[in-house]
Automatic annotation (TrEMBL):
It comes from Streptomyces rochei (Streptomyces parvullus). GO terms for molecular function: amino-acid racemase activity; hydantoin racemase activity. Coiled coil: none annotated. This is Hydantoin racemase. Belongs to the HyuE racemase family. Pfam families: Asp_Glu_race. It catalyses: a D-5-monosubstituted hydantoin = a L-5-monosubstituted hydantoin; D-5-benzylhydantoin = L-5-benzylhydantoin.
Amino acid sequence: MRILVVNVNTTQSITDAIGKQAAGAASPGTEIVPLTPSFGAESVEGNYESYLAAVAVMETVRAHPEPFDAVIQAGYGEHGREGLQELLDVPVVDITEAAASTAQFLGRRYSVVTTLDRTVPLIEERLEVAGLSARCASVRASGLAVLELERDEQAAVDAITEQAARAVEDDRAEVICLGCGGMAGLAERVVERTGVPVVDGVAAAVTIAESLVRLGLSTSKVRTYARPRPKRIVNWPPKAG
């Protein structure tokens, strides 16, 4: 089995961390192929960057040679999963939805701990669109930008575990979801602080993607995610200069 894991930003070190986390969760015989878009922002923390990332991810996957058996969109709250589902005949799994749906097997209510406060509405919106918001106790911001997660690991751990503990104590969450692909590998530290199950979206997405492939299931093409109708697209891709 071959699974593409696509970072939504252009920072290679984050792609490497996501790829490592995905490979660690994969079953024997599953090949993980991490991909970095060739254009876009170095981190995705707002609507403009998110929509740009959606186009970048779709074009990155379209350009990648087949065969592959599934695609994971490794960005929290980002747009674009629906476009990939239209384009592809293989399963497409978004880490936001993978983490939240997995959390619902583990406790009555879950909370998401993410990066900056400005990303909170994007995640809330994605959970609502996916039908996963009813059991979400809260979406909490650690106050750290995506790239800060790499620059000062201890500060990142402290900020994330603090918000996770507050989610459990104040919001009555029973499960924590790590709300950023760049948080890959931090689950154990959060478990130590909170004592509750912690779901890493990348690891959850790999497991879900593998299950869908083994079951022989993929996206329905009857209506919502039917292939794009053939039509002329003007000046795409844009020419340099």
